[in-house]
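Entry for zinc ion complex. Fields follow.
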Amino acid sequence: MHCAYQNLTDAKIIMNYEEKISQLLIVGGTHGNEMSGIQAVKNWQSNVCQTPLDTIYNGKIHYALANQEAIDKCVRFTDEDLNRQFTPDKLKEFTKTDYNLNNEQKIAHELNKQYGPKDKPSTDFVIDIHNTTSNMGPTLIILDNTEFYKQLARYVKSEMPESIILFENNQSYSEFCYLCTIGKKGVMIEVGAQPQGVLKAEVYNQTVTMTEKVVEFVQLYNDKQVNAFPEVEAFWLGKEVEYPSTLEDGKTEKLAVIHENLHNNDFKPLHNGQPCFQLFTGEVITWQEETTYPHFIGEAAYYKANIAFATASKIKF
Ligand SMILES: [Zn+2]
């Protein structure tokens, strides 16, 4: 696709600088067993890190370990997934005085009060840090395609070529259930493969680097110094694919495992006719749709929900 700004001599003029991003919220522990974000936030807070973030950003940085109870127990959540509680409708429900809030609903309500509220956010930008058991590499999840997010994605990709840009827009930014959407702007960092409850050096380092790059971009944006980069390769979230299964007495029983040729091959093309699942009877199930780019392949947190992977298409962003 033709990029109009490529011909401009002063590429900087394409960026529409709105108001400054004067404060950031950086969150770890939205899921209590995702150790890289939890550790990174603790380390930035206590200044045990190679690059203190306040050396690359002039504004105010707030840190939060979102779900302390889940972190203490080293579980994803105690009652329900915190990162699904931030829809406008749910947040409204949680304000009702007669509503008996569970752990995650209470946290969502409190975070929204402190750093939102979602319909009129006091926080300019939220970076919510996750990790996945899937082999997704350092992935930046972006929920809107305004010029700001495009330039952010291009900056991160140019500084960190191994990074993956994953774009989700199956609903509008403000309708998403994700914690990061309580800010005026927000992104998620999702790095894998890392088992639940474990910290791996490569994943930790990629998490820290990607966060630094996002924060660097915010400072460049505040300084009106964003260089216009050409479009980059990105992936556009499609749908979730379930494990082949049966329903027995209201219980889902899996009939297959993800095929070994597919497992660990996140964001690699899966073509029509290629192996997708291996039935426990030995038969191989092949992909019967057009080429897709599977990710969250075999993510542990989605196993119970019977989700085997998500599809994506390749786009320019
Ligand atoms: Zn997570």
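NOTE: Residues 238-312 form a domain with the N-terminal domain of TfIIb fold (CATH 2.20.25.160).
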